[in-house]
Amino acid sequence: xxxxxxxxxxxxxxxxxxxxxxxxxxxxxxxxxxxxxxxxxxxxxxxxxxxxxxxxxxxxxxxxxxxxxxxxxxxxxxxxxxxxxxxxxxxxxxxxxxxxxxxxxxxxxxxxxxxxxxxxxxxxxxxxxxxxxxxxxxxxxxxxxxxxxxxxxxxxxxxxxxxxxxxxxxxxxxxxxxxxxxxxxxxxxxxxxxxxxxxxxxxxxxxxxxxxxxxxxxxxxxxxxxxxxxxxxxxxxxxxxxxxxxxxxxxxxxxxxxxxxxxxxxxxxxxxxxxxxxxxxxxxxxxxxxxxxxxxxxxxxxxxxxxxxxxxxxxxxxxxxxxxxxxxxxxxxxxxxxxxxxxxxxxxxxxxxxxxxxxxxxxxxxxxxxxxxxxxxxxxxxxxxxxxxxxxxxxxxxxxxxxxxxxxxxxxxxxxxxxxxxxxxxx
Length: 427
Ligand SMILES: [Zn+2]
Known about the structure:
globular; four-stranded antiparallel β-sheet; about 425 residues; about 45% helix; disordered N terminus; alpha+beta; five-stranded mixed β-sheet; Serine Threonine Protein Phosphatase 5, Tetratricopeptide repeat; binds zinc ion; Glutaredoxin; 3 domains
């Protein structure tokens, strides 16, 4: 998403710079022309169908017999002049801005979508008009109608169908045809929600009863949707019970712990929430306690452990070069390191990289001199396994006494945390 924001900002700069010479930069004009393009593409597909009896494999197949002007396949808002963003639908022949949803590899799942949702589903889609928070795409449906919908179109069914009641009708019809298709299980909570919105709670209850007969009790996403439905109809005790039982039967599932903590939060039971949170947020359990030591070797093969840093304030950084938010911390970490390294502060990197060369290149390019633990095993690195690290960045600040101060020493607050920790009372 960050890249996306940058793209949007760039395109704004472009439009400011070239506003004078190019009146086409008007977004409304772009939408109008794009809509015309989609209508023309729809017409071309229709005549192609009449001749061939089937859909084209790609939009370029329409050229030039059914679509003489190939520039119609390029949206005026497309700064790349012929690429489809966020889609595997890359036309093999021509520059095409539009995502042709019915390309061969995707045909089976789109056919299912048509069965479930009707011909309102998108056949061709333009994603070049999306703004940062407004993820609106312009679509040509299988009925050759042009409409706007969110990029996550199955979450905007009321918008697409025009009303809550119509959306309910369509989903009911879809579930009649494909009740057990697990791809559409996520639509059950959506239908329950629509029922509640229109005051049809009995139907929501019945839907839940029916859904319970379809799911696998140990499949977390199946259970998650059931939990969402119970929450929608405000059966909070049953929701909690569902996840507690799931946790009992599936002790390795971490997501359920998060959900249970959230439910306890909502109930105002902070202690129980924390108890569950400790189970899935690594480090929380050590807060204020000694962090157990590990044994490993650094990049030079030298033995290394937390014990060796006792008496210093130590930042243990679980990270990897491939982790964007991790490397985004580098400048700040370097600043704090340079300022306090001679005053009793140090950093120890626990790299979850698998590519040693890439790691070493990054370290030398960014002049990072603090030591690194590297095993090449990624998430399976013994040290990250020992501390149950399931997400990075994870930045632990350990006091001079070896006790964990925080498991979230990131960003602007890093420096003040370090300053505070360096003021050792026993000194
Ligand atoms: Zn467009």
